[in-house]
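Me: Here is a favour to ask of a fellow structure person. Could you put it straight underneath, so I can go through it closely?

Assistant:
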Amino acid sequence: MNTKRVAELFTGFAILLLSACSADKKEVEVNTDVAVAVTVSKPSADEQQEINLSGQIEAAQSVNVSTRVMGFITMLKVKAGDQVSKGQLLATISNQDIVAKRAQTDAMISEAQAALSNAQKDYDRFTTLYKQQSATAKELDNVTLQYNAAKAKVEGAKQMRNEVNAMLGYTSLTAPFSGIVTQKLAEQGNMANPGMPIVTIEQSGSYQVSASVPENTISQIQQGATAIISIKAIDKTFKGSITQINQSSQFTGGQYIVKVSIPGADKKDLYAGMYANVTIHVTKPLAVKAIPGMVLVPLSSIIQKGQLTGLYTVGNNNTALLRWVRLGKTYGDKVEVLSGLEKNEPFILNAEGKLYNGVPVKIK
């Protein structure tokens, strides 16, 4: 019995040993099979075939609704996100003082019209007497002057009423166009001051992209040129066209602002403020002036993880190694690496599989 049991134990150990060897061999084979084929490149300076810009979605028409009078806000029922139509009442301002002034001007008009009626009677009477040679020319001139002065007083009182009515109109704020309320900057009961924005309205469905262009590439952009717009937030890419080029960078920090239109069919699911990447093809390539020590890599090789940027390099054991880098200016389809990668250090340009830290790679 002991001899039989010992034989069984030796048999079991042999099976376990063979299984372990087989597993090790299989693991080696798996690691060899999952190596990702990659293309390696080195940083370089090249010609610029495309201009890549960063921009934001914005409404083509936006307005801050405010008033020219001072008073308490007596009604404000709209809020951010509300759809409003053209001419819709948005808010009202207390107007008792203006209403009182209008009553005063109405009384002044009545008084001036009564004086005008009396002056006109005198004018008609003295005109008749003068024709009958019963009144002198001097008397007719005096009556004529009084009549003209009465007419001027009536006209002046009417213009005062027009001014009061205009001020009264600023106490009822209406939407200048149909759109959506994006900001509510006051509440009912607050004191409204002249020029103080109360609500902000953006026109519905009038989205465009506003992008900044550096001075070294603005000469390559022409109005009407086609641009490729990519919005990562909704994973959407479509074509647009340049509709406006700002000719001055005085108030934009040395950057020239361009506007890119968005086709109507592609405006769905867009919201103002979304970030967009704009690519514009240039007909005449610009040579990037290589500064000594400049490191340029393709934008396609950059990895974005939150606020961090990096790219993959090949480690000593033929594995992918994620290297965090700090980026500088963009030159066409390339971007400057300020730190994290040496000028002649190879990096992974593209891969035929998914890359992550430690994955085996094989260079094509």
In short: The longest strand covers residues 47-59.
